[in-house]
Design brief:
This protein is an alpha/beta fold and about 260 residues long. The protein is built from eight helices and seven strands. The protein folds into two domains: about 200 residues, 3-Layer(aba) Sandwich (Rossmann fold); about 35 residues, no CATH class. A seven-stranded parallel β-sheet has the order 3-2-1-4-5-6-7, sandwiched between helices. Helix 2 links the parallel strand 2 and strand 3.
Length: about 260
Amino acid sequence: MDLGIKGRKAIVCASSRGLGKACALALAKEGVDVVINGLDTQRLDATAAEIRAATGVNVVAVVADITTEEGRAKLLAACPQADILVNNNAGPQPGKFLDWDHDQWIQALEANMLAAVLMIRGVLPGMVERKFGRIVNILSAMTKSPRDPDLGLSTAARTALIGASKSLSRSVMVNNVTLNNLLPERIDTDRQKFMAERMMKAQGITMAEARQQIADSLPAKRFGTTEEFGSTCAFVCSAHAGFMTGQNIQLDGGSYEGLV
């Protein structure tokens, strides 16, 4: 299927690896010029070279911290007429509720809610004017099914972003601008390696046993792939997805048990 976005321009935040990289690569395969972002210059340059070699599109790599005003300004300046924005950022480390002080809550909100909101603020006027915009927030399945108290900082901040995006989505839909959220769980990335390592230490088991235990907890009995995730993102950003906004799309191997 031709997604109808060849020649469009995209900013993909936190995209030197993992889910962000998967989205940037999937968009590039559709002919979208991409601005990618990260903090590690060497890794970012390697990702840019990989995407260029695989797709032939224009790839700009921006080393910037999107939790800062300066970092966001650098990204927006690199793509002043963005048609697509994919918001992404690493989440806070797991921990215990009573250990989280005021500063840690503020840091979580800065990284996983406010950075995305302010990136949206930066691209939105141009999207509205040009009558095309696709905004995707990469969040977490925990926002819809928050069952791990150790992830409370991440869940709270990301859920706040869902609320902000939903409230905005209705008012800009008439201008062919959509805002949707991808809610991953158990996609096979470095984050899942980290979670498996936690299980290893807690239970005294091997990495293989921890990964199998995680996979067995899902109806799919396997981890999701980054390719599956990236392809979903590309479709949500496509010309064919203009009638869908304000949605929370779960990529979780069937783990969510609710109806809505």
